[in-house]
Every structure is written in C-alpha cells, then in structure tokens.
Design brief:
The protein has about 325 residues and is an alpha/beta fold. The protein has 10 helices and 10 strands. About 45% of the residues are buried. Bound molecules: zinc ion (ZN) (2 copies). One zinc ion binds near residues 28, 251 and 271.
C-alpha cells in the first residue's frame, strides 16, 4: 500500500542539481561528518527569466522579514554542558543568506518527492509513529511524501570484506551495518523522482567497527538515508518517543537539503550529542532555518505554520500546536 500525502508540486520552480561534494553523514547524535558543500552555481539567466529573478528577490525579502517576526519565539543557544554537542564540536552555524550563497541541494521538478520506507518488522506503536512522521515531514517541508509498502529487512552475507551484522557488546542485540542498507537495500530501489528515500528500521545500526552505534546515516549524493527507532523509545513516554522521532526526521531531512547545524538558536537543526539534548530542543526550526525551508520548498511561512499547527493538534501535541499558531499569526502581521 502506498500512502501519498498532498503537496504543491506546481510550486517547485527553482531547480538545482543534486551533485554534492560530500556524501555521507551520520545522524547527529553520533557524528555529523558532513561538509555540506555547494553544487555548481546557476548559469547566467536569459532575459526571459528576468521576471522570475525579480519574483525570487521579492520572495527572499519577504522571508527575511518573516525571520524578524518570529525571532521572539526562540531562545538563543545557551552555553553547552560538558556532554553537549557544542562542547565537543566547533561549528559556526549557517544563516539564511549563507545557505543561499552555498547554492544548496533542493528539490527539482523531476525529483521532489520524499519516500519513507518502513524496513523490517514493526509493532503497532512503531507503525503509527512512522505514519505520523511521514505526515510531519510533508507538513514540515511542504513536499509530497509517500510512505512505501513495508519491506522485510533481509541481511545478505557480504560479498567479501567485513560482515553486514554484528552483536552489540553491551545490548547483546543484533546490529546492522548502515552501509549495507544504503548501498544494497535502498540504492537499487531508489525511485527516479525521489528527492530522498528514507528508511526507518526498528533494528539497531552501526556504521563500522569503530563505533558502538549510530541513530542513522544518510548519503547526500545518493539521496538515501536510514534512521533507527531502536534507541529512541524509553518505553515510558509515548509523547517523548513521538517528539524525538519527529525531531530527528526533520533534522536529518534538513541535512539532505544541505542545511548545516544551527548554533545561533535552540533549533531542531542544532546538533545533539545525547537524547537529553534532543529532548530539550524544539520540534521547530529557528527563524534562519525556517527561511531556508520556505525557500527550498517555495512555500509561505504562514501556510507552513498553519499546517504544522494542524498536524500537532491532530496528534495531541497541544503546546506545540498553540506555538505554531502564534507564529502563523506573527508572520502575517505587517
Ligand atoms: Zn545533524
Ligand atoms: Zn536553525
């Protein structure tokens, strides 16, 4: 069964290539290894594109205005604790203008759909969570998101080299190597029109022998990623499990669209080192990152906030719904 969520295909007008300098990033609770670098600069615009260029300029000005209007809703990044991300990672952040200058990866007319693949076995709670996350991504990025039919996770023996699974020394549970899932499971089924194909698994993951585990890994170049639910559920707090999954999904998808870690505000695009840090972050992006998303998906901030408020209301996230509604009102003010 395929589940297609509505979005405005026709709105995607700005086209870029997906060629990227670097390719792999780990879900950031483990490591974000990404130099999210730029593609080739757009060629000189022909005269017939002058109107479009003027429109784009106007859109960017409006987004800059919206940034100012929602600044009061966000906390400036606080000094990191010893175990927090910024205590061990030197990052400079990325403003909206820096993002535009980097000529980032974004959806094109040919590749604008996000595919979500449930990979392996899931219980009813996890299935519901994946469906909710699929819906959240559609609202968050204003792109068509399709949940693909679930696929069993069959791990083939390696064709030489190191194994594709191992037993984790601490949990004594099986772990699956992320490279196997990306290259051998996802790449062969990557749809032509995919802006990204993201697999969710309930299995624990590891990238290589040097690391105990990762929450996930993505390839910008190949447009595939895998995220694990294994370590997100503490089995005590269903709302917390949902919020963590939504945050990680929104964050990692942001990387797939060349968004770097945020350091200016407490933002869903800020790096996190542990689940406590993830839990402390909002499910929303800061003003600068909001503008990046509205630009890449060619959507209006007020419409986006309204959609996010509806999602939260429907899924019992009352406080978050109210805040999104207030932001929608704020960006509408002249
Ligand atoms: Zn990250
Ligand atoms: Zn941000």
């Amino acid at each position: 069964m395929h589940r297609i969520l509505p979005a405005k295909y026709a709105k995607i007008t700005k086209e870029r290539t997906f060629s990227m300098g670097l390719s792999l990033f780990f879900v950031c609770l483990a490591i974000f290894a990404g130099t999210l670098s730029s593609c080739s600069k757009p060629e000189n615009k022909p005269a017939s594109n002058m109107t479009a260029a003027r429109e784009a300029k106007k859109e960017i000005k409006e987004l800059r205005d919206s940034i100012k209007k929602i600044e009061p809703f966000f906390k400036v990044m606080s000094k990191p604790g010893t175990n927090d991300w910024l205590a061990s990672h030197t990052e400079t952040g990325q403003t909206f203008d820096e993002y535009l200058d980097a000529d980032p990866t974004k959806p094109t007319k040919e590749r604008q759909k996000i595919y979500v693949l449930p990979l392996g076995a899931f219980d009813a709670k996890q299935q519901k969570l994946i469906a909710q996350t699929t819906e959240y991504l559609a609202a968050f990025y204003d792109l068509p998101v399709e949940q693909m039919a679930a696929k069993p996770l069959v791990v083939e023996p390696p064709k030489g080299g190191t194994p594709n699974t191992r037993q984790n020394q601490l949990t004594k549970k099986r772990q699956i190597k992320t490279g196997y899932i990306l290259n051998d499971v996802l790449m062969p089924i990557l749809p032509k029109d995919a802006a990204a194909l993201i697999a969710f698994t309930a299995d624990d993951l590891y990238p290589d022998e040097s690391m105990n585990y990762v929450f996930g890994q993505g390839s910008l170049e190949n447009r595939v990623g895998v995220w694990s639910l294994f370590r997100l559920d503490d089995h005590t707090d269903e709302r917390g499990f949902l919020l963590r999954t939504l945050k990680i999904a929104a964050h990692e998808m942001g990387h797939m669209f060349s968004m770097k870690h945020c350091t200016k505000y407490e933002c869903v695009m800020s790096g996190t080192n542990h689940l406590g840090e993830t839990d402390s972050r909002p499910i929303d992006t800061c003003p600068e990152c909001m503008a990046k998303i509205c630009w890449l998906s060619d959507t209006k901030p007020a419409e986006r906030y309204t959609r996010l408020a509806e999602f939260c209301r429907k899924n019992g996230l009352t406080k978050e719904a109210e805040e999104f509604t207030r932001k929608a009102e704020a960006v509408k003010k002249i």
